[in-house]
Each structure stands twice: as C-alpha cells, then as structure tokens.
Amino acid sequence: MSAAADGSAAGDLAAVRAMFPALSRSVHGKRLVYLDSAASAQKPSAVLDAMDDFYSRSYANVHRGVHALAEEATAAYEEARADVARLLGAHADEIVFTSGTTGSINIAAHSLVPTFDGGEIVVTAMEHHSNFVVWQQLAKRHGMALVVIPVRPDFTLDMARMRAAIGPATRVVAFSHASNVLGTINPAKEICELARAAGALTVIDGAQAVPHLRVDVEEIGCDLYACSGHKMYGPTGIGALYGRRELLARMAPAWFGGEMVHEVTIKETTWAEPPMRFEPGTPNIAGAIGMGAAARFLRSIGHGRIAAHERDIVAYALPLLAAVPGLSIIGPQAAEGRIGAISFTLEGVHPHDVAAVLDGHGVAVRAGHHCAQPLHCMLGVDSTSRASVGIYTTRDDIDVLVRALSSVREVFG
Ligand code: PLP
Q1: Which residues have CB under 6 Å of ligand 1?
Q2: What is the pLDDT of residue 9?
Q3: Between β-strands 145-149 and 120-124, what pairing exists: parallel, antiparallel or unpaired?
Q4: Does this model's pTM top 0.70?
Q5: Residue of 87, 141, 286, 374 with fewest CB within 10 Å of its CB?
Q6: Domain 302-412 sits in which CATH superfamily?
Q7: Does domain 49-300 have CATH number 3.40.190.290?
Q8: Is the distance from CB of 272 to CB of 249 less than 8 angstroms?
C-alpha cells in the first residue's frame, strides 16, 4: 500500500484514501493533511454507511423487543460484537461494549481493585491518564501501593525495572500496548508472562495498538484488553473491553442498572452472564455497529498491509523530521518497534504555536501533553507537538509537514 513501492501499491493507497470522504476536503484553502489519527482517526464510508443504515432502516432498542426491528437491531449489535472479537482474536462473549478505552479501564479497575486485599498495582510512566489516574486513585482508596516503571533514555520501557517490580505483592500490571506519545510498542507478551508467573492480572491499554498492529489477545496472554472505536476508524463514544472468559465470569459488575441482571428481588440481585453483566442500560447501539464495521474494514485491508505501509511512512518521516533544524523527536528514532505517533519539540517555539502554523498549511497535528503528564514530567518537557499517521497517510503528507515545519522556523526564527 506504500506509495513508494510499485504502481499497484500506490493505486492501493489511493483506493484506501478514496474510502475516507473527509480526506478529499480542503482547509484554509489547502489540501487537508490529516496527521492527528492518534487523537482520533477519520472514518471510511463503510463505517458511516453501517451507522446510517441502522438509524434509517433498522433502528430499535436491543435485547428487549420481539418485533422485527428490535430483532434486526439486536442481530446487528451482536454481529458487531463478533466482528470486534474476531479482530482481537477473542470469543464474542469475551467482548464488553464500553464507552471507549477510558470506560473499559474504569470498568476493569472498579471491578477488580475492591477485591484485592492490599498489595501493589504496577503501571508504567508512559501511560495515558486513562490508564494511570484510575489505578492511582483506586490504589489510594483501597490502601494499595502504585509502582511506576520508568522509561529508558531510548524511550523504551525499562524492562529490567519491570522484571524486578513484578512479584508476590503484585495484583495487577496495567500498561499500554503502544504509547500515544512516544510511539513505543511495549513487549506485551513478555510482560503478561511475568505477571502470570507472579499470579498477577494484566490489563492492557490497546487504544493505540489496535488500529496499527495485529492484536491477538490469546497469543499475548493478557487478562483484559481495552480499545476505542474512534481510534480504529470507527465512531466516538464506543469501545471494547476484552476479558478472559473465566475472569469475566468471576468479576462483579462495576455499575448497575437494567439489562445486566439475572433476577432482582427487594433484598438481592443476581447478575446476567458476561458480557451483558457489564453493559447496564441502553447501550450505544449505533456506535457498536459502527465499531463492528470498522473491525471488518481493518480485517479486509489486513494488519500485515497496514503495518507495512505505516512502517514505510514512519521510516520515511523520521530522518526528514530529524533533519529539520531545532527539531527533536521524543520517541524511538527508528521505525522498528514503534507506531507512527511521532512527538517532537521545535527549539524556541511552543508546541501550540507549531500546531497553529501547521494548521495554516492544512496540516492537522496535536499539541499539548497528550494526557500523559507523568511522562512529560519525567522527560522534562511541558508539552510536545505530535504528528500521527494512519492507514491513509502518504509520503506526500510527510513532505507537506516537513516543508510547513521549515516555515514555522521562519515565522518564529
Ligand atoms: N489510552 C491511550 C494510549 C490513548 O491514546 C487514549 C486516547 O488518546 C486513551 C487511552 C483514551 O481513549 P478514549 O478517550 O477513547 O477513552
């Protein structure tokens, strides 16, 4: 799919781009160069059409009606669950629909932490606040210790510290599969093996991994895995929590309401089987259907092709960016072992100013601490600019970015 490869690959990329209506628009009179997919990815027509079709033809609530529309809606919702399960190498009954990665991690933490009798929660310094604050706060409330594994100078996780930290007191190891700031891909399988050997559970934040890498939860050997629809070309407000079947079966729900119960009496309530137990109330049906369509879309392209294309773009981008005067890449300097979330600083220019000037060139990037303040603090920077690639990013997009960055230097130099 790389534009650098043969003509058919370039044609492939053009065909992929044509599936995303937003990519053909312009901003400020310039071609849109969308390099903010790590914040949220654009949506292909397959996702938009699936949601439109549901709202215009088959709309009804799920799991409660016997009329035709209710049955169609329920079937579409459950098919979407099966599609997400296939994407993650899981079984459908191991997939809980949530509001997103944040929702998934909150469900996991609120359900698990109260069951622990003290002990330690291990997280990493490169976590998004979603996978940091929840553990920090619940550790405080429940008298547990929070152990934070640092990042090494080469922006990889300090695995020596991870190995030393995981032990008999560890109850949970919660870590991101890929960092939204550094782009670093963490050795998920190895961390899960260490945790399992110590009798600890693993919770993986897969928000930045699922759109870019082949994820097989069984192969990784994790207990829980969280992801968001909107980062994987699906809609906002929907996500998934994978949970190992036996684990979900013994987890109590974190929130309560209708549809998640087996029986309710004045004195007691018993729970429905997972995953329903974790989905109280009317779910985000259209969102789930859109996420299912996004999962099918990703599978139809194939993670082998996606990863190869994105690796090509990242390998192209890194040396060009590194050659921009005053620019420092905050993350691994080689394309291997990382995703295409490329954070950087530009000497003497605030990241928000960088983003504002780039916007004038039609280039969308993000600036700030990317919801990872502990990481920025550890790195000694307040904020960074971040260009992030997706399935539709071209080498030309990178050329426009690099040219525009040179003009930032001119404006502020
Ligand atoms: N984890 C990581 C690594 C992320 O990049 C993000 C979003 O940027 C999240 C968690 C939170 O995802 P959401 O806002 O979809 O819940």
Answers
A1: 100-102, 128, 130-131, 176, 180, 205, 207-208, 228, 230, 239, 371
A2: 75
A3: parallel
A4: yes
A5: 141
A6: Aspartate Aminotransferase, domain 1 (3.90.1150.10)
A7: no
A8: no
